[in-house]
Every structure is written in structure tokens, then in C-alpha cells.
Amino acid sequence: MNLAEMILNQNGGAIVEQLAGQLGIGSQDARRAAEQVLPKLARGVQRNASQPAGLEALLGALKGGSHQRYFDHPEELGSSATVADGNAILGHLLGSKDVSRNVAGHAASETGVDASLIKKMLPMLAAAAMGALSKQTAGGGSLAPVGSPTSGGSGLDLLSSFLDSDRDGSIADDLLGLAKKFF
Fold first, then answer.
1. Is 182 strand, coil or helix?
2. Which domain holds residue 57?
3. Which residue blocks in the chain are alpha helix, DSSP H?
């Protein structure tokens, strides 16, 4: 299961409903916008994990950042503290505000949702993404609403399965492919 599926389907779409309510848009619009943005955030996670010491830093952030609460309690997504944390996460995942603006602009052109609303959505989705990854890494329970059994493996095993984009059982080729883009 990919990151977008985990977030979009958590508790019957509670995160999407929360985003829609926070932004004053319909659930379908919030879902379409999130579907456009989440794969870009996932690529940011993959890119960070492909950099020297990036995987170790990511695992440290997932274990020590209390991010799981954003996934488990979507009502926290609109708080100023969550938005601030989400903006910091975006900085790590996307690199700059210019990239965030481009992501929002592209999502707006694909969905018809105003880019200013998607810009507001980005930090909330970034926080939710880290929350979903944190929950998986910690083995913090089943993601039953989306039909994914909890693995008894280590956090590295769980994150590795997320990073294995071609599902061949190895992340080495995936990380090498990402690293080649930087050189």
C-alpha cells in the first residue's frame, strides 16, 4: 500500500474530511487535491532516504517526532503547531518554498482547486504523511481501515517496504536510481 492510500483511507477518509473542513471545500475537492500532492511528498521521502545518512535521519525523525498523532487524530491537522511542524517537514521533503508553490500550482491546474487552498493544505498533508510513516515505523497498530495488516518487522523493514517502489524486494536499486538523479 502506498502513502497516499494510507492517508486517504485512514478511518474512512477522516483526514480528507478534516482537510475539507479546515479549507472550506468539498470532500471530493480535498481528496482530488491530496491525490495530486501526496505522490510528490512520497517522492520527497524517497529522495531524502537516498541521500547519505538520510534514511537514518528519517528513521530518527519518525521515532522521535511524535508525528503519529497527526495520523491518529486528524482533528489536530489544522492547529497552528501542526501547520508549523508541517511546514518544517515540507522544507525537508520538497526543499524550498518555490517547489511547494510549484506543487500547489500543478495540483490546482489538475484539480481546479484554488492554488492558495492547496498551499494551505500542503503542511497538513506533510504532517499526515509523517504521521502515517511514523505509525508504520513504530509498528503502532494496524492500518485496518485500508486493509493492511501490521507487520511484526522492524521500523527499517516497514520503511524499506515503502521505499521499494518497484516492489522487487530490494530498495538498493530504487535508492540507486534516485541517487543517479543527483549526479
1. coil
2. 3-180
3. 3-9, 14-23, 27-50, 54-64, 68-72, 80-94, 97-111, 115-138, 155-163, 172-180
DSSP 8-state secondary structure symbol assigned to residue 153: S
Q: Are 97 and 108 in contact (CB under 8 A)?
A: no
| CA dihedral sign of residues 139, 135, 146, 142 | positive
Backbone angles phi, psi at 33, to 5 degrees: -65, -45
Indicate if the alpha-carbon torsion angle 150, 167, 37, 88 is positive or negative: positive
Digitized pLDDT (tens) for each residue of the chain, 183 residues in all: 677 888 898 888 899 999 999 999 999 999 999 999 999 998 888 887 777 677 777 777 777 767 888 888 889 998 999 999 999 888 888 888 899 999 999 999 999 999 999 999 999 999 998 888 888 766 643 333 333 333 334 444 445 555 555 655 555 555 555 545 444
Q: Give the whole-angstrom CA distance, residue 128 versus residue 122.
A: 10
- For the chain, how many structural domains are there in total? 1
Question: 52 — alpha (psi -120 to 50), left (phi > 0) or beta?
Answer: beta
